[in-house]
Design a protein that fits this description.
By secondary structure, this protein is mostly helical. It is 70% helix and 0% strand. It has six helices and no strands. The longest helix is centred in the middle third of the chain and has 25 residues, at 50-74. The radius of gyration is 15 Å and the shape is globular. The termini are far apart.
Length: 153
């Protein structure tokens, strides 16, 4: 299942990348559901958990503004719109998994998978950048909420 989920993350990244590119290019026909369906169809025999991929894509898009707002102070030298599109979407996927999928995806797995995506699809320095940002996000956004000082019951 692990390698299956890795491929699922690749498909999610490809879907988010294409959708963002088309929207920013003023392509009024861009439909994330169509893009996701087409990308999943390519790997129909390999990806068993299509729901996982759909959850990542839809979740990242639903939470995108909040994710970007959390990424920005962690990477203050890089305005979110100046981060390479691949890196930006890898960060969004990784942070989404850290914040919203923690019961299903251990933090180390979320960060490691994001780093692997960056190695495969980003530039030479992408994996270090992704690791640094997500490591900081984990320490400041996840660990602080679960350090025992929380008042939630």
């Amino acid at each position: 299942m692990a390698s299956n989920r890795h491929l699922g993350r690749i498909v999610a990244l490809q879907t988010l990348y294409e959708y963002e590119f088309r929207v920013q290019s003023n392509d009024t026909s861009a439909d994330v559901d169509d893009i996701l369906t087409r990308n999943l169809d390519r790997y129909e025999a390999t990806i068993e958990d299509k729901g996982f991929v759909g959850t990542l894509v839809k979740g990242v898009l639903a939470e995108q503004a909040g994710l970007d707002a959390k990424i920005q102070p962690i990477a203050p030298d890089w305005p979110i719109d100046q981060i390479a599109r691949v890196d930006r979407n890898v960060l969004r996927i990784g942070l989404y998994e850290l914040l919203f999928q923690a019961k299903l995806i251990p933090p180390k797995v979320a960060i490691n998978e994001a780093v692997e995506l960056a190695k495969a699809f980003g530039s030479d320095n992408s994996s270090k950048f992704i690791n640094g940002v997500l490591g900081t996000a984990y320490r400041t956004l996840v660990e602080e909420k679960t350090d025992g000082s929380s008042t939630e019951v």
